[in-house]
Specification:
21 helices; seven-stranded mixed β-sheet; elongated; 15 strands; binds adenosine-5'-triphosphate; binds magnesium ion; Helicase, Ruva Protein, domain 3; 495 residues; Rossmann fold; alpha/beta; 4 domains
Length: 495
Amino acid sequence: MDVARQIEVLIRARYSVIYIVSWEEERVEQTLRAVGEKLDKNVFTWTVTQGMLHADGRGSGASTGSAVQGLEFALAQQDPAIFIMRDFDTTLNDPIVERKLRDVAKAFRSSYKTLVILSPVLTIPPHLEKEITVIDYPLPDEAALGELLDALIAQLRDHPTIHVDLTDETREGILKAALGLTATEAEDAFAKAVILNGKLDRDDIGLIVSEKQQVIRKSGILEYYEAEEQIATVGGLGALKEWLQKRGKAFSEKARAFGLPEPRGVLLIGVQGCGKSLSAKAVSGLWHLPLLRLDLGSVFSGIVGSSEMNMRRAMRLAESVSPCILWLDELEKGFSGTRSSDFSDAGVAARVFGSFITWLQEKTQPVFVIATANNISALPPELMRKGRFDEIFFIDLPRQDEREEIFRIHIARRERDPERYNLRALAEEAEGFSGSEIEQVVISALYDAFDRAGELSQEDLMANIGNTVPLSQTRAEEIEALRDWARDRARPASP
Ligand SMILES: Nc1ncnc2c1ncn2[C@@H]1O[C@H](COP(=O)(O)OP(=O)(O)OP(=O)(O)O)[C@@H](O)[C@H]1O
Ligand SMILES: [Mg+2]
């Protein structure tokens, strides 16, 4: 159901207060005016600066300038009407406004009037939660963006110095790149692309993608990674890699035609430094999809809006760039709810977490979720229930052959020929080492060689292995507990 229809249904069903979350006041108002016209209702808009105004410009002026006056005006109207309240969320922490709004909610239920709160942020005082229905107004889809682009092209048709040359393919590329932008942002991005070099063509897709990265960065909760890490940089973890390789093909049209469901997500649990984060990054390289890292710390920090709102926004943004990969690193830090001093209280964590779980199961856009964690005791058990993720993998310390491969990768990464070293001996000596500890061994050995003004030798590597006390020794108990937990709940990432 499209959003206009959804709003219409709510209004006809006499929902009294609807909260629409959107940055795009103009687009939302257009929709509401159209709904009002269809249902033969007056449409009013209230703002802090102008009070209540009728859509035809007729105003009630200064006497409705306060939120309470605006609501009283709405209560007093006899005819069927929609009241759009802009800026209203900023007044909601006033107890009088809150009470008035509850009166409105009650009175409107038996009337043909609807109050619509319109704001880019969602802030509902707990008392009002039951009275308010929330709608996330979606960003423009490809068709809507296409109309904006066509309008721009029509304007430029007779321009002497501007040249627009769009094949169907380029047009599609530009529109896909602009998904996730608001209408205004998309218009600005298109205009910028034209003005920069006097034309609009294939080369502008990159520019629009970078505009979108800006938007994502500004959100403060998602970080955009280009697909750069290759799967070959991950040593071992054969079962995980094979699983991922197979799932990668499932995003194609062909797979859909074959009847394959789109993969939803995977949870990686494992010992520190054994390649969870690395694997997440490598999937994006393997599948050639952008990777969005969700910073759970800032979701809960309170610096950029409420936790619930942040989570919703992150999910919407991720959907708007889909197909993509959404990476939740160190899940336990956000969702544990036990660290009340660091983040927020357990109640909020549970609510945010609940909406995440629902989304994980019901999302319709191809957003693949990779979640990583190394401390399961802090995770809510619902998360591990079957069916949330497509699979839960357990990443253990690397075995002998995997350690050899990890040495090979890190020696090669430092521009040395791995075949000049006895990898088997190194791996044997490094029993119990994690991937990250192996990397550290290679790095410190390089320092030693450089200090000596010699070349990196087997002895440098062996000596550094000898000097390292791996976590598997200092935290043996923790690791054993994790293994016990994983034994019949997760699939081993190494075959
Ligand atoms: N299997 C591996 N193959 C190659 N390199 C590895 C592997 N595991 C770890 N490393 C190296 O160690 C670094 C750290 O690993 P990574 O960040 O993936 O660990 P992690 O499992 O996410 O640990 P944490 O639980 O501490 O977040 C990687 O960037 C990589 O260089
Ligand atoms: Mg990590």
